[in-house]
Amino acid sequence: MEIRPILSSMKRNPVAAVLIAAQIALTLAILANVLFIVTERIRTMAIASGVDEPNVFVLGNQNIGNTRDPVIANEEDIKAILAIPGVLAASPGFSFPLVRDGWQTAVTLTPGERIEGPERAAALYFADERLLDSLGAKVIEGRYFTPGEITPFKQGDQPNPPVVLINKGLAERLFPGESAIGKMINITGNQGEPSQRVIGVTEHIATPWPRSRNPDRVVFVPHASVGLGGFIVRTEPGERDRVMKVVEETLFKVNPNRIVSNIRAFEEIRSSAFQSDLAMAVLLAVIGISLLAVTAFGIVGQASFWVTQRTKQIGTRRALGARRKDVLRYFQTENALIALIGITIGSALAIGVNGWLVQNFGFDQLPLSWLPIGGALVLILGQLAVLGPALRASRIAPAIATRSA
Amino acid sequence: MFTYYLKLALLALKRTPVLSTLMVLAIALGLATAMTSFTVLYRLSNNPIPHKSDVLYAVQLDNWDPQSPYDRERGLPPDQLTHGDTRRLMADAKGLRQAGMYQSSVVVVPADPQVRPRNASVRVTGGDLFAMFDAPFLHGGGWSKEDEQREARVAVITRELAERVFKKTDVVGQRIRFDDEDFSITGVLDTWELRPRFYDVTNNTLDDPEDVFLPFTVATAREMDINGNINCWQPPSAPGYRGLMDSECIMTQYWVELPDAAAVSAYQAYLDAYVAEQRKAGRFGRPDNHRITPVMGWLAVNNVVPDDTRIFVGVGVAFLIVCLLNAAGLLLSKFLRKSGEIGLRRALGARRSAIFAQHLTESGLIGALGAVCGLLLTLGGLALVRSLMPNFDDVARLDVGLFGMLLVTAVAGAVAAGAYPAWRACRIAPASQLKTQ
Fold first, then answer.
1. Interface pTM, i.e. ipTM
2. What three-state secondary structure class fits B287?
3. How are beta strands B175-178 and B97-109 bridged, if at all?
4. Which of A67, A149, A184, B189 could form an S-S bond across to A222 if both were Cys, CB 3.0 to 4.6 Å?
5. Which of A40, A103, A291 to mutate to test the interface with B (most CBs of B within 10 A)?
């Protein structure tokens, strides 16, 4: 295919081609970054919580008046929830994976150790004898707390137990390549002598803050939280919705002086934790699709005009022996040339935009392999858009050349 | 003349319905995206208290870990104060008005035992808050300094809570039961539009102001829980609530009103002296990093406008540019397609300026049509934002001023996009075009 005539015709009338190339360049620059953000958000939203999500729900509970001993009240409530048919486990607490409310501490290994930034931050979960069962998670090494190790924990207390469990993420972070069982750590934040013995490691459990830098570091302390927050409940498969409906009345039968609030299935916790990510992904996807549509229609409109404008030349070329295929190819090559110029400029622009995002918003670097993929996408889009007008051009009869003027 | 151009423009649009629709749609889509994102940005960047935003200052002290800064990247002091510093600064009262505050909650116990109690959100605060922030009282007012000193159980509540509990709003002097104590109502606030809720950016900024306002001294005496963020660089040295109140843990917001430059420098000197005094007691082991920041600066430093919104705006504007480029390309094609007609008109005596004006009118008309369709799409876009982000319910609302801007941008953008094509059209020589006909 001869490129020179295409170039010389473009040179004679460059503005339209420049406008299309600029559009393609901007489209690619926006699209590459938008797609990158969308995939990153989708990945964030897919973070595993470690919770048996379809069968777990949480609820808030607040006792009113100081008539009952809070430790006993707590035990009675748990007993009542466990007695509901279909309930497998229930634990008190306020902080669970993805709920964005909780206790964070620094974990140290030696006295006086300085912790730099978020390196050693871990979430604390207050564990009664059933917490792991209520979450639907398992111990993968060592053992869980025995009932005798669990002590009550009230507002204002400081956690400082002799034994703890940690999750897999923290174990790998603190003791890479070796077993964490029997190791001493300090979770009190006072940089003192390590006083907590690790007795077990659980499988992956997420922190309450899925969007933090270290969403996989957790310490379980053997404290049954008393009067803080509410409960987490796990049911047999398929029983959750029914249990959620009766749990409030069950608790009111134990003691009516309370406020039960926010009975939420775990899916709801997940969707509210990632609400802004979902919003961003949807909005950017809508813009991305509109962008492709606008650019495609722009190419269609421009190509249609060129076909109309060149009707006579095409007729002449056909009369001089050019085949339909040649005419079709002419328009496709022309579009590909313009697109390639646009893609080259667009790739540079995409990197520039990403650099700006990295600098100002702490984004990750756009993988360079995305650019050829995005470029190919834009190229195919251009070819498809130009196909209709080009086919129309190829059907122009040679006789047209002799008719007018 | 303009109406004649408009008539011609309408005729021209009708003659190429597909191309015209494409242009109008492209402009509408671009505008809708840019306007949706701008609306959210504009609403989030709103000055919540325009007439006083430059005399209200957030106070920050740096009591953080001597070994490690609070904010390594930006070098900012902690965003909240300790309970102890809050009490002392309020007692010194060196500003015109000042209030330390935090968020808490109470159980509102109804008089009727058949009605189940409910929670109410509480702002625990110094009594200056109401005058300082121009809180809109419907009835009554705030509590007195004397009430604070004798820890009187007094409260200001919102009209919504008054209506819920008493079924009326004028309840000044009545008693309301919070947890296990009766409080006397000194004032009822009217609906308070405060967006963003600038006085507490650490906790949810898009929430409404709280249902109940209680004196700081009373909350301290009753040991009311701190519902907001509590951040400690070392554990409290004593257990329980008292230990927390005397710890280096940060948990309160602190605002001061300073009416003029003299008051500002006096207050800065006071803070210098306060920090120096505390150093003698062994606190504040870090280099001096205390400061006061006015409202809008405070909102900016604390990223009240989420990064996502800025990115959304960037993408929206870039998309609008693509749409305008698109329109410019299509207009160029459209105008040049009419070369013959233009040549004929020129030959019949139409001046270049007339041809130019006529084509600009046509571009403007497309822009205006794009703006009308864009308005509908913007409403759709904002509805989408609201459905995705329920807490943006009051943020993602069309603003009339912005709509005016939309119209102007659309027409101006389309006219700008049409300027080159129109210029090209008016350069068409009469003779050459007539020849080819």
1. 0.83
2. coil
3. antiparallel
4. A149
5. A291
Say if residue B196 is preceded by a cis peptide, omega within 30 of 0: yes
Q: Which residues of B225-250 are buried (b: 16+ CB within 10 A; e: fewer)?
A: bbbbebbbbebbeeeebeebbebbbb
Residues of chain A contacting B249 with CB distance shorter than 8 Å: none
**C-alpha distance from residue A191 to each of A118, A169, B65, B70, B363 (Å):** 15, 22, 12, 17, 70
The single-letter code of the amino acid at B278 is Q
Contact B292, B264 (CB under 8 A): yes
Q: How far apart are CA B399 and CA B333, in angstroms?
A: 36
CB contacts, 8 Å: A259 with chain B: 107, 116-119
Q: A234: which 2 tokens?
A: 């796990």
Place of tokens 């941008």: B409
Burial of A248 (0-12, 13-18, 19+ CB in 10 A): middle
Domain boundaries of chain B, sorted by first residue:
2-45+307-436, 56-301
* End-to-end CA separation in angstroms for chain B: 28
Q: Mark which residues 353-372 of B lie under 8 Å from A by CB.
A: none
pLDDT computed for residue A3 by the predictor: 78
Please tell me if residue A109 touches chain B, with a CB cutoff of 8 Å: no
What burial class does residue B266 get, using C-beta atoms within 10 Å of its C-beta: 0-12 exposed, 13-18 middle, 19+ buried? middle
A152 touches chain B (CB under 8 A): no
Work out the burial of residue A145: count CB atoms within 10 Å of its CB; fewer than 13 is exposed, 13-18 middle, 19 or more buried. buried
A342 token code pair: 């646009």
| pLDDT of B437 | 45
Residue pair B148/B126 in contact by the 8 Å Cβ criterion: yes
Tokens, residue B364: 């403007």
Question: Which candidate, B345, B349, B371, places its Cα nearest to that of B359?
Answer: B345
- Quick one: pLDDT at residue A197? 95
What's the DSSP call for residue A32? H
Between CA B379 and CA B391 the distance in angstroms is 17
Interchain CB distance below 8 Å, B234 and A117: no
Contacts of B426 (CB under 8 A, 6+ apart): B342, B352, B353, B355, B356, B359
Q: What is the spatial distance between Cα A110 and Cα A192, in angstroms, rounded to a whole number? A: 8
Write phi, then psi, for A62 (nearest 5 degrees). -140, 120
CA B103 to mean position of chain CA atoms: 20
pLDDT tens track, chain B, 437 positions: 778 888 888 888 788 888 888 888 888 999 899 889 988 888 888 899 999 999 999 999 999 988 888 888 888 999 999 999 999 999 999 999 999 999 999 999 888 777 788 889 999 999 999 999 999 999 999 999 999 999 999 999 999 999 989 999 999 999 999 988 999 999 999 999 888 899 998 877 788 899 999 999 999 999 998 888 888 888 888 888 888 999 999 999 999 999 999 999 999 999 999 999 999 989 999 999 999 999 999 999 988 888 888 888 989 989 998 998 888 888 888 888 777 788 888 888 888 888 888 888 888 888 889 888 998 999 999 999 999 988 888 778 888 887 788 778 778 888 888 888 888 888 877 766 566 54
Q: Would you give the distance in Å from CA A353 to the centre of its chain? A: 21
Q: Do A294 and B239 touch (CB under 8 A)?
A: no
Tell me, yes or no, if B249 comes closer than 8 A to chain A by beta carbon. Answer: no
Integer Cα distance of B300 and B304 in angstroms: 6
Question: H or E stretch including B158?
Answer: strand B154-158
Query: Best mutation site among A45, A158, A307 for testing chain B: the one with the most B CBs within 10 Å?
Result: A158
**Would you call B387 an interface residue with chain A, using a CB distance cutoff of 8 Å?**
no
Q: What is the per-residue pLDDT for A119?
A: 66
E strand residue ranges, A49-119: 56-63, 87-93, 103-106
Residue A344 dihedral angles phi and psi, to the nearest 5°:
-60, -50
